[in-house]
């Protein structure tokens, strides 16, 4: 649940961790951005880069975490933020093809407002940048292929993927197979390990696209109004 707007989705598979920070239940939650694990929940929850596994939280009713409160610095963590941290940082704004809004949407105005705030903070905004091979990527299916290849291999230390599929079928009512299916699991089960050609194509797309953009414009960060950009980062193992 989004702690600021109850009717808004918190998004992201790790949204629970982000929401715990937004609701002041924890100061920091670490994690990795795979593909949309962090990005989707940053904007809706009004957060920075935060993710899974709560660190430093406490509950006075929980004996195991009750004493953790003594490690929280007096005055909170905000005092350690650098008000001039953005000064001189080059932020690249990529609008195409992410800036598509429904009629009447307030997002364009909100984005421009936040862009102005970034400039006031000393950031240098390099606007209207484009990723060279973005059209190629949008018609590219190898990212899903890589996911399926890796998924089958990575799940085996726990159980085989076939066992997981069988469990879901056996308890289909509880697992809501009728409502949600398990298409990704079924497709992953048909794979036979990592396809190196697929990984090479993904690495080349990243090098000639996102990485090229960052180097040519000497950027410190990339800025878009939504999390749709996450696949362009994920194929190269970023961030």
Task: Give a written overview of the molecule.
18% of the residues are buried. The chain contains 12 helices and 3 strands. It has a 3-stranded parallel beta sheet, covered by helices on one side. Residues 44-56 have low confidence and may be disordered. With 239 residues, the chain is mainly alpha-helical. α5 packs across α9 (183-189), α5 (142-155) crosses α10 (196-208) and α10 (196-208) runs parallel beside α11.
Layout of helices and strands:
Layout: H1 15-22, H2 39-45, E1 90-94, H3 107-120, E2 124-129, H4 134-138, H5 142-155, H6 161-170, H7 172-175, H8 177-180, H9 183-189, H10 196-208, H11 210-216, E3 221-223, H12 230-234
Parallel strand pairs: 1-2, 1-3
Helix pairs in contact: 1-2, 5-9, 5-10, 6-9, 10-11
Descriptors:
single chain; 239 residues; mainly alpha; three-stranded parallel beta sheet; 41% helix; globular; 3 strands
């Amino acid at each position: 649940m989004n702690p600021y707007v109850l009717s808004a989705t918190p998004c992201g598979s790790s949204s629970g961790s982000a929401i715990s920070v937004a609701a002041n239940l924890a100061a920091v939650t670490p994690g990795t951005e795979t593909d949309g694990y962090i990005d989707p929940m940053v904007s809706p929850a009004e957060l920075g880069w935060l993710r899974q596994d709560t660190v430093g939280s406490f509950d006075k009713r929980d004996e195991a975490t009750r004493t953790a409160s003594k490690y929280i610095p007096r005055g909170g963590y905000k005092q350690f933020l650098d008000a001039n941290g953005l000064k001189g940082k080059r932020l690249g704004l990529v609008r195409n093809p992410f800036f598509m809004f429904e009629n009447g949407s307030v997002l364009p105005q909100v984005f421009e407002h936040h862009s102005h705030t970034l400039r006031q903070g000393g950031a240098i905004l390099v606007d209207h940048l484009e990723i060279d091979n973005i059209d190629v990527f949008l018609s590219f299916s190898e990212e899903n292929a890589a996911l399926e290849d890796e998924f089958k291999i990575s799940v085996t230390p726990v159980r085989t993927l076939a066992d997981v599929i069988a469990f879901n079928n056996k308890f289909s009512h509880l697992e809501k197979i009728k409502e949600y299916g398990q298409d990704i699991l079924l497709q992953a089960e048909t794979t036979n390990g990592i396809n190196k050609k697929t990984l090479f194509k993904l690495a080349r797309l990243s090098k000639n696209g996102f990485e090229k953009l960052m180097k040519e414009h000497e950027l410190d960060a990339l800025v878009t109004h939504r999390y749709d950009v996450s696949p362009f980062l994920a194929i190269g193992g970023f961030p």
